[in-house]
Amino acid sequence: MRVRARRGWGSGPGLMRSPLAANGASTPGELMTFSLYAATVPSYQQILGGVAGLLRTAETFCAEKQIPPEELIQARLAPDMFPFAMQVMVTIAHSIGAIEGLRKGMFSPDTSPPPDSFDGLRRQVDAALERLANVKPAEVDGYLGRDMLFVFRERKLAFTAEDYLLSFAQPNFYFHAATAYDILRSKGLPIGKRDYIGRLRLKQ
User: What pTM does this model have?
Assistant: First the structure.
């Protein structure tokens, strides 16, 4: 998708105005390319890779401290929040699950119980990363402008594919990944921001 960059941010259909323009870094009429794939899938892979690392660290922590694994797996930040295991599963739902939802034009949350072991959670995350690795840029970019529906019980939210990913699925993805990290940190695990962020995509 090619969009014309102008000074400031705009909201016209099919137009993305570069934030760099306000600082004089781009000029009127300059063309830039927006890839829905690049804006989503690589970050899903990066943060889910961090979640996989958190699971390994949590399992080791339990073994070393002789803590029952379920103490962490069922831990919550607050009584009305999902436990750690469900936080992990929701990151999967809002990453590869969101992409698979685009293929059907509809996403509905899976409310089945999450795995009750680190091994089971790790298998789910590994499978999600494998499925994400098979997603092609042309497929995701081809969904631009298509209708997308979120359905949960009686609630229905209509989006375009790009607004579904960028304004709904992706914010939820980061929220639940960060909450999974926060639960482990609150339980005393020796982890930090680097563990959450995962492997950076450095210039080669």
Answer: 0.84
Q: How far apart are CA 121 and CA 106, in angstroms?
A: 25
Residue-by-residue DSSP string for 41-94: HHHHHHHHHHHHHHHHHHHHHHHHHT--HHHHHT--SSTTS--HHHHHHHHHHT
Residues 40 and 20 in one domain: no
| pLDDT, position 15 | 39
- Residue 157, helix vs strand vs coil: strand
Tokens of 164: 């579904």
Instruction: State the total domains in the chain.
Output: 2
Q: Which amino acid is at 123?
A: R
Mean pLDDT, the chain cut into blocks of 10 residues (204 residues total): 36 38 47 85 98 98 97 97 98 98 96 96 98 98 97 96 98 98 97 96 92
Phi–psi pair at 30, nearest 5 degrees: -70, 135
Tokens 């990066």 belong to residue: 46
Range of the domain at 17: 1-34
Q: What secondary structure does DSSP assign to 95-153, as a single string? A: THHHHHHHHHTEE----SPPPSSHHHHHHHHHHHHHHHHT--HHHHHTTTT-EEEEEET
